[in-house]
Amino acid sequence: MWSERAQMPVGVHHPAAVSLGGKLYVVGGYRDDGAPSNALQEFDPAQKRWRTLAAMPTARGALGAGVIDSKIYAVGGVARGGGAPLEMYDPARDAWEARAAMPTPRDHIAVETVGGKLYVIGGRAGNMIFNLNANEEYDPATNQWRARAPLPTARSGIGAAVLNQRIFIFGGETAGKTFDENEAYDPATDAWKKFAAMPTARHGLAAVTLGGKIWTLAGGKTPGGSESVIVEIFSAP
């Protein structure tokens, strides 16, 4: 059963979202006119209300975000002027700080955190025909990036979830097709392993770990602006 909550102050699509301290944060995205947004919006479930916080320094959409040590890291995306910014938000100070830029500019990426480090996987260089297999790791302790084993199947518009300390990458799109690939990265060994393909190839899907399984939700079955109501569950061996 679904229930509605207070609407967001700023309407966007292709934002990043994370949870931290019992609150939900929505970062960036695109406005209806296609302009990238720098809005940071926080929802407090206890109060059932939103508020806007300090604006992200670089407005961008199709970005990713992760949480490490109670800080939010917003990375990549399509930004005016290009580049691959990494910016850190500290909720305790309501302040942003620029960090070392990601080596490979890209958008429509997967971002997850494992072992206190941030991993940015796959994505595209502005267009789905320019899919990338980059896998780059950021260490907040040193403010440095390093390249890791590349994603076996270059793709963008992907879903990602962490299970048993491995990062699973699902689906994606390129010109003329969607992907059903399910490939997992183990940061401990810097190695990938292919797992059972998704029953339904799709892009722009969501993936979340719940009850020791990964739920893959929605997504388009054809490249571009398609949609679905598909829910498929993956159990890792």
Outline the structure in words.
- The protein is mainly beta and 237 residues long.
- It has two domains: 101 residues; 112 residues, 6 Propeller (Neuraminidase).
- Helix content is 0%, strand content 42%.
- The chain has no helices and 23 strands.
- The strands form seven sheets. It has a four-stranded antiparallel beta sheet, with no helix packed on it. Strands 6-7-9-10 form a four-stranded antiparallel beta sheet, with no helix packed on it. A four-stranded antiparallel beta sheet has the order 11-12-13-14, with no helix packed on it.
- β1 and β2 form a beta hairpin.
- The mean pLDDT is 95.
CATH architecture of the largest domain: 6 Propeller
Strand content: 35-45%
Largest sheet: 4 strands, antiparallel
Count of discrete domains: 2
